[in-house]
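Record type: monomer structure entry
Structure origin: computed from sequence
Chain ID: A
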Amino acid sequence: MEIAAARVASIHYTLTDDTGRVIDQSTESRPLRYFHGAGNIIPGLEKALAGKQAGDALKVDVAPEEGYGVRNEGLVQLLPREAFKGVDKVEPGMQFEARTERGPLLVTVVEVGDDKVRIDGNHPLAGQTLHFDVRVLDVRDATEGEKQAGRVDPA
């Protein structure tokens, strides 16, 4: 059975950056299961997996436009330290949910000064080409519940 819309695929993957450093990977005991065609994984990987079958292996390079997007420097802002009232210690790497006109946005603290904090609303992998090494383990038809939800039932 081929990976196609409204089917559930199980894959093992390793994600690396341009230097070959491993960013993320599935474990043998926990493959990634996803509902194909609902945007549950990045578009470039989903497109590359379409038509693949159990046993197929592939290497996929996903450009930023088909991954987590290009970096938007407008999402990097300098805020007054007072914007973090109630937080005892603000440190680089901390993440907060910011409220924007377009809804919630996860921001990462990148720099902390005495009276200013620099935050970045870009996804940490924005602007990067992503390199996937993927092995397809299984493909099945989605259940009716999965089709209605547009995602895999938790198991």
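Annotation 1: The CA atoms of residues 33 and 155 lie 10 Å apart.
Annotation 2: Residues 43-49 form the longest helix (7 residues).
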